[in-house]
Design goal:
Chain B: Residues 1-24 form the signal peptide. Chain B: Belongs to the UPF0065 (bug) family. Chain B: Keywords: Receptor, Signal. Chain B: It comes from Pseudorhizobium tarimense. The structure holds three protein chains of three kinds. Chain A has one domain (4-504). In chain A, 74% of the residues lie in helices and 1% in strands. Chain A has helices at 4-16, 24-36, 42-53, 58-75, 77-83, 92-103, 107-140, 145-162, 167-181, 206-221, 239-249, 253-268, 274-288, 300-324, 330-341, 348-353, 355-383, 391-410, 414-431, 436-460, 464-469, 472-504, and strands at residues 184-185, 191-192. Chain A is globular, with a radius of gyration of 22 Å. In chain B, the strands form two sheets. Chain B has a six-stranded mixed β-sheet with strand order 7-6-8-5-9-10, sandwiched between helices. Chain B has a five-stranded mixed β-sheet with strand order 2-1-3-11-4, sandwiched between helices. Chain C is mainly alpha-helical. Chain C folds into two domains: 11-62; 79-145. In chain C, 67% of the residues lie in helices and 0% in strands. In chain C, helix 4 packs antiparallel against helix 5 (104-118) and helix 5 (104-118) packs across helix 6. The chains are: A mainly alpha, B alpha/beta, C mainly alpha. Chains in contact: A-B, A-C, B-C. The B-C interface holds B 41, 48, 72-76, 193, 332-333 and C 35, 37, 39, 147-149.
């Protein structure tokens, strides 16, 4: 699967134009800063930089843009950990445990864990990509609605584990989220629940709603608190602790590997990508962890699972783009445009004719991941100072930043208004013991679930089972899902037995 | 790929920088009354990364060369371009806001199915270089070899094939026209609806649906994975194999053209700001004919053909009229 | 907050649940009024029914026994605290709805001043200075990277 002549060609290519490497650092820095600003998407960051690449040669242009891609992918995790703001939908699961860690005074560790698992996840994804790019691309296009539906259902399993103490409230929160996620025009062209508001045709704006539910609602509830971290001594930002977090990450190779695999595969599916992969990885890790009950209260394993998956989705999306010429999302659409600006058109022939370029892109991403580690260390160190800002400044500032971000991503007051509605809703839900995270997951998965259920119904003429039997990949996904649930039940029982035995002794 | 630490790169970059600085230099340096004396906004009623966004960004450097002022791209996506179109009309018609959009089908759709507050005449199309068309295709490995094959199978059993398309689209109308011309019971066909052209095309290429009716230009990158069966145009487009619509439906075939994308202005500008209007139309024409622009856009698979305002507006009006005939289909099931 | 019988009513929770159920029912009715076809209701209708059933299960939590410790409203919270929360919510609403009308600069500055005061900054000059600086910083910061301009009045 790996062609050595192309690999050596890639090295020649990479060493031929040394100024390409000069763009690595600014690219990462731009990406990190843009990504860390709530509401500024990776796509916006890349669209912003695209005109500049017009005057560059091909290789520097691609290195620059992919560096922004990599940087922005991690940048979103920083506000997710420090303030519970998922600046992009791919950092949602990072907030589940990252933010509680920060509140406990483990912000340095949390950032270190997030950075290390992002870097490793990114590296792992390109290693997997390096070997599997051709087979992956062969499968991606064959995935139909039933397969996508299976992925969405898999994501919904997370609801069960997010529910917390009140199961019925958790499930209600999740179902409510799913319903809100289907507002607007559905895939068959029916328009529901828009109340005549034009911008609701595209559904409830997801990112402002998420920011409202997860972040703004928390901030409003913190009004009587003076600092994000109660204990003054813990407020210090320590390089040693960040590195401690990095080191801690290496103790969970299984979680990283599972996260990366989920990330690459889900990331390769056009239109699904990192916003789903981080949820799946988190859910699987929680289900399989012996200390699954402490997830959501600041368990570093949750951060590792989420970050490994969302950063490795980049590799998956790149696989689809390089092998098929199909942009899985906005970011890869911009990359394709940049390729085209230099007379290189993506698609199946592209990979056959330009293996050296493909491998050069992969190698330069190895370098990016390494450098991200260094730049990221500095970045999180500086960003960590946020926890030392008194809340009386932080609450208004973050609310305004979220409002700007909500406006930036929607381009109109629709964003800020959504943010407001959902922060009030979120505040009330938190107050009465409803898990807001379940609503977020429902909101994210609602339209994916509905669209693919509908298409499965349309394509099968209503005969789900007959159609399902013709779809081996869907059966495989469902089988994996069931296997994972069974495995969990068995290991839970075994653990309970061991616990009972040790209690008896 | 040059192998030296290239001076050319630096030269190019600095030349670009100087050009940009000159364009962005304060308006005080220019005659106050000469239009344009400040940057011009380009409204794209779609999100970043789509065809119109790419077209606007690729064409902008050449258009700003003609106008002598930088262009700012403003993405206002959402609600099938309704939000962006409304936003554009709300801006003053002083020539500092222009539009880059898929005029067809979105303007007629906004008006016919979404109760838009505007009429077609509120927009003036300077040029619609991108003229898309519906392509009926199947995956490269499919056992459907031709349109006739498709028709005869559906005639025998309308539920024997699944068809992927977008709701409320020209493609849907064309599918219905083809079916009713061949007496196929259209409601019994397994129609699978997709949220966008991209997902529908992927489903065709992957063999998820048996046949797809989708905009043809977007199929180009997937050319090796599909088999084109029928082009809904009176001539061959983009060298696709397969039939053209007149082969199948006769010389006076009734069909709807696909997306017509390009540059628009406020219709009211013709009377309120005739001088500015003339300048803008002239600049868009000059930039469209600029060989450097043509080459740059061609490389990105973007269109620059110059049809001019008269033809562009006529084409749009014609499309709107045909779409009106199929109002019930477009309004949904 | 409590009735005289053995059970209490958690009013805030009642309002929240009523709002959720109200939205769900209204959404279901709206969807049904658009079309009764499978292509419209396949997911929405069952999900809405499920939500209503789940809401019925939640209902007892709103009327806990007076001695149940679990359902008490957040402890140590005074009316003053609650009023501050409401002022903050109203201020945020003001920001969200007025941004485009009165300009980002004025709306942001006004919100910052109010929110800082509500959140406990008592030195007025610190409040005004920080609000002004942060507003300018944000408008130019976000302004340069968003693909469209922010409507402004003064800046």
């Amino acid at each position: 699967m790996v062609e050595l002549t192309s690999v050596s060609g890639a090295f020649t290519l990479l060493s031929s134009d040394m100024n390409a490497w000069l763009y690595l650092l600014p690219g990462l820095a731009i990406g990190l800063i843009f990504g860390a600003m709530p509401g500024i998407s990776i796509t916006m960051a890349m669209a912003f930089a695209l005109p500049a690449t017009l005057y560059m040669d091909f290789l520097p242009a691609i290195v620059f843009l992919t560096a922004i891609y990599t940087g922005a992918g991690f940048g979103g995790s920083v506000p997710a950990v420090l303030m519970g703001i998922p600046g992009t939908s791919s950092a949602v699961a990072t907030t589940f445990d990252g933010y509680p860690m920060a509140r406990k005074g483990q912000h340095s560790e949390a950032l270190g864990v997030a950075l290390a698992s992002s870097v490793i996840g990114c590296l792992a994804s390109y290693v997997i990509l390096f070997v599997l790019i051709v087979p992956i691309s062969g499968v991606v296009l064959k995935l139909g609605p039933l397969e996508m539906f299976a992925v969405a259902v898999w994501g919904m399993l997370l609801l069960g584990s997010l529910a917390g103490t009140h199961m019925s409230r958790g499930l209600l929160a999740g179902t409510f989220g799913v319903l809100l996620g289907t507002v607007g025009m559905n895939t068959a062209g029916f328009v529901r629940g828009t109340m005549g508001i034009p911008w609701l045709l595209d559904g409830v704006p997801q990112i402002p709603a998420m920011m409202g539910l997860l972040a703004a609602s928390q901030l409003i509830g913190l009004i009587n608190t003076t600092y994000l971290i109660a204990d003054e001594a813990s407020r210090k930002i320590s390089f040693k602790k960040i590195l401690g977090g990095v080191q801690h990450t290496f103790r969970y190779p299984t979680i990283i590997f599972r996260g990366s695999l989920i990330g690459v595969i889900v990331g390769a599916i056009p239109g699904v990508g990192s916003s789903i992969s981080n949820l799946l990885s988190y859910s699987e890790t929680k289900r399989n962890a012996s200390d699954g009950d402490t997830f959501g209260q600041g368990n570093p394993k949750g951060v590792i699972a989420a970050e490994a998956a969302n950063s490795s989705s980049e590799g998956g999306a790149m696989a689809t783009m390089l092998a098929l010429g199909i942009p899985g999302g906005g970011a890869t659409a911009i990359l394709l445009a940049a390729f085209a600006m230099h007379n290189i058109v993506g698609g199946p022939s592209f990979i056959a004719n330009n293996k050296d370029i493909v491998y050069a892109v992969i190698f330069s991403n190895f370098a990016q991941a390494m450098l991200l580690f260094v730049v990221g260390l500095g970045f999180v160190y500086v960003a960590g100072y946020v926890v030392r800002v008194p809340l009386r400044f932080l609450i208004p500032s973050v609310l305004v930043v979220s409002t700007f971000g909500a406006y930036a991503i929607e381009g109109s007051s629709a964003g800020p208004i959504t943010l407001w509605v959902f922060s009030v809703l979120g505040w009330a839900m938190v107050r009465y013991g409803y898990p807001v995270a379940a609503t977020v997951v429902g909101l994210l998965l609602g339209s994916l679930l509905e669209g693919n259920l509908l298409r499965t119904n349309q394509i099968s003429g209503g005969d789900f089972i007959g159609y399902g039997l013709e779809r081996p990949w869907a059966l495989l996904i469902f089988a994996l899902m069931l296997g994972s649930i069974l495995l969990q039940a068995i290991s839970k029982r075994r653990r309970a037995k061991v616990a009972a035995l040790s209690a008896a002794q | 790929m040059t192998s030296t630490f290239s001076r050319r790169t630096i030269l190019k970059a600095s030349a670009g920088g100087v050009a940009f600085a000159a364009l962005a230099s304060p308006s005080i340096l220019r005659a106050q009354n000469a239009y344009p004396d400040r940057p011009i906004n380009v409204v794209v009623p779609f999100d970043t990364g789509g065809y119109n966004d790419r077209l606007a960004r690729a064409f902008a450097p050449f258009l700003q060369q003609q106008l002598g002022q930088p262009l700012t791209i403003i993405n206002r996506g959402g609600a099938g371009a309704l939000l962006g179109h409304t936003f554009f009309l709300q801006q003053p018609d002083d020539g500092y806001t222009i539009l880059c959009t898929s005029a067809a089908p979105y303007l007629p759709l906004n008006i016919l199915t979404q109760d838009a507050s505007f009429k077609l005449e509120d927009f003036y199309m300077v040029n619609l270089p991108s003229q898309d068309y519906t392509l009926m295709a199947t995956s490269a490995g499919s056992d459907i070899k031709s349109v006739q094959d498709f028709i005869s199978r559906l005639k025998a059993d309308p539920s024997s094939l699944s068809v992927g398309l977008q709701p409320a689209s020209a493609d849907l109308v064309n599918f219905h026209i083809l079916c009713s011309a061949n007496e196929i019971e259209v409601d019994a066909v397994r129609v699978v609806t997709y949220d966008g052209g991209g997902p529908a095309r992927n489903a065709v290429a992957g063999g998820v649906v048996d046949v797809g009716f989708v905009g043809g230009e977007g199929f180009l990158p997937l050319a090796e994975q599909i088999r084109p069966l029928l082009t809904f145009d009176t001539r061959k487009r983009d060298n696709w194999d397969g039939a053209i619509v007149t082969d199948v439906l006769g010389a006076d075939a009734d069909f709807v053209v696909g997306s017509q994308r390009g540059w628009g202005l406020h219709g009211s500008m013709q009377t309120s700001n005739p001088e500015v209007f003339k300048t803008l139309v002239g600049a868009i024409e000059a930039a469209s004919k600029d060989p450097a622009a043509i080459e740059a856009l061609k490389n990105q698979q973007l269109a620059t053909d110059w049809y001019g305002p008269e033809e562009s507006n006529q084409m749009l009006a014609r499309t709107a009229k045909v779409m009106e005939q199929y109002l019930d289909l477009l309004k949904g099931n | 907050m409590s009735t005289k019988s053995g059970r209490k009513v958690v009013w805030g929770h009642l309002i929240l649940l009523a709002a959720i159920v109200g939205v769900v029912v209204a959404y279901l009715l709206d969807a049904r009024s658009v079309s009764l076809r499978t292509n419209n209701l396949l997911l929405v209708q069952p999900a809405a029914f499920l939500a209503i059933v789940l809401a019925a299960f939640v209902l007892p939590g709103i009327f806990p026994r007076a001695d149940a410790a679990e359902e008490v409203e957040a402890t140590g919270e005074t009316w003053g605290d609650l009023i501050r929360v409401f002022i903050l919510i109203v201020a945020l609403a003001g920001l969200a709805f007025s941004l485009e009308v009165i300009g980002f600069d004025i709306a942001t500055f006004a919100f910052m001043v109010v929110a800082l005061a509500v959140c406990g900054e008592k030195r007025w000059w610190v409040n005004l200075l920080f609000s002004a600086l942060f507003t300018v910083f944000l408008i130019y910061g976000y302004g340069t990277i968003t693909p469209f301009p922010f409507p402004l009045t003064i800046l």
